[in-house]
């Protein structure tokens, strides 16, 4: 009997600790991030580290590089002036929303699609990029479109909405969720799955680096990417939206699209240009 | 938290089941393999001793994740296709067996050498003396550290999440990223791990008292 008492004590104290921890974070959401950042002239962005063309940490110099990185820098400068700095924190599909919620980052610009489920937890800016979900397969694979994946194994990434989407198009597919894109790609190469699914623009980046693999079939969803902002940060949200429309209006946006997607095979950059 | 648990009950339970299965398999095989290598480390034959040493030193000093990744990503490329669950369980078995080998070897060494000499003097072979005289006494010494190894093994089984092994941690990650309720999800996952590890701890304490 005594042992069960110990067990009960341990469980109760754990619950207590976590409930208390939950209460502490209240004060964070009442802070005005827009005003805070204005003082320091720094915006902390959550970005991807493993996604070529969008957000990738270059192993040679440790710098973040990609379309989203450049866009974040441009938006930061529009928001707080030429000398404002964009600080980058690398996130994964899984960690990005928790890191935003606990205040480690001010905003997420990390290949995140605007979805109704996510909108319950966080706010989004206007869409800054229009991607669509697609599949990557080995050259010569019998899989021509997503529906061919029934009874096959498909690889995705934990926390991306693509793993949930793919079940609508191929309900009998077996889905493996791996921690990040680099590992998902290696698993595909090792034959752990028949195809890798995520947004076409991410897959295009993989195809560039990995001859023998190609984007297969048309995109079967539309995935508007949005900048994720914590609920209640209305000043920050409207400032980001304003800066984004300015970046689009003065041609910087299209210049960045050309720079990163100008010659990527299998990806038509003209479709994502903005007026 | 109750709502989170009930609405994702089947995922949590299936994850719990895979974690339990993987742990039981790894525990069983690592105990056998570990004991074998422990004996190899103390046999009179120098060549066998070296083999035992090399095995233990290599697998004890490589991170578990690296061993598992090797089985998940490299072996399928060249030898045979194995899925995430198998790769994870193999990795877990090899890694834990190296630690168990060291633990059991320490146990064997702490048995008075006179025991072995006396047994041999009675006409027993080395293996007979090991089996009937030395090992039963050695296991008594190593029960507390072995208990630690078993608890570590269950906790280390979370490595399966990184190779899509459908274990508790994998399901926890998936649920957390779908519901965005990270805190409660991981609290529940933690409690499920406790359900496995606490009875092991208590059983080991009980065994220790009984045998001491």
From TrEMBL, chain A:
TM ranges: none
Superkingdom in the source lineage: Bacteria
Family to which the UniProt record says this protein belongs: Belongs to the bacterial solute-binding protein 3 family.
Coiled-coil boundaries: none
InterPro entries: Bact_solute-bind_prot3 (IPR051455), Iontro_rcpt_C (IPR001320), Solute-binding_3/MltF_N (IPR001638)
Domain Solute-binding protein family 3/N-terminal: 42-264
Keywords carried by this UniProt record: Signal, Transport
Protein name as it appears in the record: Glutamate ABC transporter substrate-binding protein
Keyword Transmembrane: no
A Pfam family this chain is assigned to: SBP_bac_3
Residues annotated as signal peptide: 1-21
Gene3D superfamilies xrefs: Periplasmic binding protein-like II
Domain annotation Ionotropic glutamate receptor C-terminal: ranges: 53-263
Automatic annotation (TrEMBL), chain B:
UniProt subcellular location: Cell membrane
Transmembrane domains' residue ranges: 20-40, 61-79, 186-204
Organism domain of life: Bacteria
Listed Pfam families: BPD_transp_1
Domain ABC transmembrane type-1: 16-204
Topological type in the membrane: Multi-pass membrane protein
UniProt keywords, alphabetically: Cell membrane, Membrane, Transmembrane, Transmembrane helix, Transport
Protein transport listed as a keyword: no
Main location: membrane
Family per similarity comment: Belongs to the binding-protein-dependent transport system permease family.
Record-given protein name: Amino acid ABC transporter permease
